[in-house]
Amino acid sequence: MTAMDAAPALREPVGSPPRIGWLVVARKEFADHLASARFYVLLVLLGLVGVATTYVASDTIRSAAEAATEVQSIFLKPFLIGHEPLPSFVALVGFIVPVLGIAFGFDAISGERAEGTLPRLVSQPIYRDDVINGKFAAGLAVIGLILVAVTALIAGITIIRLGIAPTAEDVVRLGVWLLVSVVYVGFWLAFATLCSVAFRRAATALLIAIGLWLVATLFVSLLASLAAGVLSPVGADPTPAAVIANAQMNDTLSRLAPPTLYSEATQVILDPSARTTSSLLLAAQVDRAVGSVLPLTQSLLLVWVQIVAIVALTVISFAVAYVLFMRQEVRA
Question: Would you state the pLDDT for residue 223?
Fold first, then answer.
């Protein structure tokens, strides 16, 4: 058989699906992330934080073992309970995991541009959007791997320290929390990728992403309080209605920040006894509350707005980065 005869056999069949270019890029980026120093540094950092908080929380629960035996979903308590000077594991995760998204996204495009490899990358026989899609998918996969590994470590320590096994609902709640956490980190990864596309220098993209993270995490309460005082003032001699309106406005404005949405969602998902996400509870509401735990479906009904908002913010951030990247001119 000559080369001319063999050529048709090497061609792809007519109507076959095109090569999945984003998966090729994702595999290469995933391998590079696993071999990078930032992966191991962030994994060790989050692991040490998780082990320290869970160990302290487990001691607190064991010291009150008789009272704790009747607590529902006691397996999840070490994730929620903090002990001075350490906050709870969930609170620390909410504070630290945005760093994971920023660390794996701030130089996704600007790094390639700085090294001069972006023109060669987009000239490969793949679609241009496969580049940004593959990089985002690889970053999200690596972050998900870190979260799953640390959560499994914390669950193992909890089982050993407390001597109890999780129920089926505990496992499902933990899985839902992991999923929400990955989506939440996906927002910061998408925003960092947007900064990487919008700014040519990786350092500038990093500063912008870190700045938003600090403002949304540390100053959102102050900013929401100031804005609520302007939009719904209480006055010098406030009435109960004015105080309630101001508090409700404060809650609403605080929920504009992704950290607040994530904190409210995780608190309800991991705590079956949580019955509200609002910081404002009237005496009548507390008095009429039914003293029972909620099933997972009811807990999800309480925070479905927060979860949908996190998903929407992630989609919007990545969509803006996607459109901006597709419209940029890449010069050799």
Answer: 86
